[in-house]
Structure formats: C-alpha cells, structure tokens
Amino acid sequence: IELYTIQNPKGKIYQVKVSGVGGMKVIDLCSTSAEFNRLTVKDLKEKIMQEFPGKSEDLCMISVDQHMEDDDALLSSYGIQHLSAIMLVCKRKHFLSDIC
Predict the structure, then answer these.
(1) Where are the domains of the chain?
(2) What is the CATH number of domain 14-90?
(3) What would the pLDDT profile of 68-84 be if each residue is shown by its tens digit?
C-alpha cells in the first residue's frame, strides 16, 4: 500500500494504493491529516474490503518488518505515514480463490 495525496477543490484526499493477489487498486482514505492520524488498522481493513472481496479476518497487512495484527492500533503505531508501503497478503486459501 502506498499513500498518495491528490489535490481537489475540497482540499487533499489521502489515498492508498493497495497491491495484493487480486491486483492493484487506489482507495480513498480520508481528506485531512487529522482524520488520517485517527485511522486504525481495522479502519484500513474495512476500506480495503470494500474493494477486494473476501473476509477481513483472512487479510494480513505487513509494513516493512511488522505484521499489522492489532485491529485497534493506530496506523501510526506501526510507523505508517504518508506514502508508506504495506504488503497485502491472504491467510487462507478460500480468500485467495475469491479474489483471484
């Protein structure tokens, strides 16, 4: 996942570029840095699941050298910042078959 900021008439839109077994999609996260600073791992998973079919419990996100396992943790607690990269992987075979 790579975060991008684009300009629009309402201000910035924080987005993620999600790359996984189902391909790559750009997903809108929020429109302010304050909102971004409040996002949890669970919030990010929910946004990803709107674009990638499957179950969130089958989703594993890895940031540099850490598994992002705590759904209640803030993204910042894993060192996630603007333009950070995260790998999206699937834990279970049936999830893979749903998105491939």
Answers:
(1) 14-90
(2) 3.10.20.90
(3) 889 999 988 988 777 67
